[in-house]
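Q: What would this chain look like folded?
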Amino acid sequence: MGNSPERPWASKLPNVGTTIFSVMSKLAQVSGAINLSQGFPDFPIDEKLSELTHAAMRAGHNQYAPMPGLASLRDAIAAKVERLYGFGYDPDTEVTVTAGATQALFTAIGAIVQPGDEVVIIDPAYDCYAPAVELFGGTPVHVRLGNDMKFDADALRRAITPRTRMLMINTPHNPAGTILRDADMRAITDILRGTDIFLVSDEVYEHLVFDREQHTSVIRYPELRDRAIVVYSFGKVFHATGWKMGYVLAPKALMAEFRKVHQFNVFSVNTPMQYALAEYLKDPCITRCFRASIKPSATASSSGCALRLSSPCLVRAATSSWRITARSATSPTWSSRSAWPPSTVWQPSRSAHSIRTRHRANACSDSASRSRMKHWTTPLKSYARSKSDTRTEHAPLGECNGQPHLVRR
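A: My prediction, written as structure tokens:
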């Protein structure tokens, strides 16, 4: 056979080199400097979590886990989210365990972005956003935070075009450290209303909120939630970044597309660690400690402290308040990257129906504070819930009486 001419080849990311995290971490190691470039802690994880991982390995849980994640872990995630943010995702169809948040972000972009699409990114941003968009043929559109490092709604509005397919937001923000507040979320809702733009909300630092503020998740905003893939990280929460464990939440039809890409990316995630996390989250205090973690301790200074979640601690639900949550009337329409049948396409429902939900009393709730049932509606044909569905939307239940263990840095 004769020699074949070499095929021309060009880098898909010609302007990307080694990630800045790797560069700065290496410099810190060589010079003996304190490494502030990468978000990992310098104290150990809870011994109980280590023991649970070892126990899972010894029990033989060392083979592939189910593609979307262990059912017990997805159940625990859904319960935690419902307690904190007042909305119950379906663990079977709307929760997926991932190999960390970066894989989740990459997969979310891969599931939605097609060649020629524009993706609006709020700068400064985590450095994986733009390269992932470019790898899937999209065009990053950069919108800077204001000079005070706060969200600029007018700048975002000017960046939206008919080609915009996705908006990526991050709160609490890495690296600025600022947060999105209720007014910001409402502004984003107004900007996206009536469009077919999807939202990726990177909320991996959900529990690192100070100054008596609370984390404002898109989950609390129905019009945003119905178009959003929301990304979280166990590594950040339990200071186990090397485990590379995270999860995503999304409406059923959108999650189906996410899983199509996920299954050909990593397929499944570390099995013994999933068992450990599922068991760990059964501790009734853990999610209450999540809630307490965004409220500063009276004994903690406003700086120089890192929060360690400890187990067990006392649990008491002081109130159980309920609220009305109206679901949006419009949601994005889109076509699947994998061109599945129209039944999998996410479209607004013209016959959205209200469903009366049954009250599900929490074992810790104060019965005296329960209020009457509320209605909610669903706008998605492929996302409609049956009349037997008993999920409810309610405010977070309970807190820890005991303070989480604070480790002075």
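Confidence is low (pLDDT under 50) at residues 293-330, 339-409.
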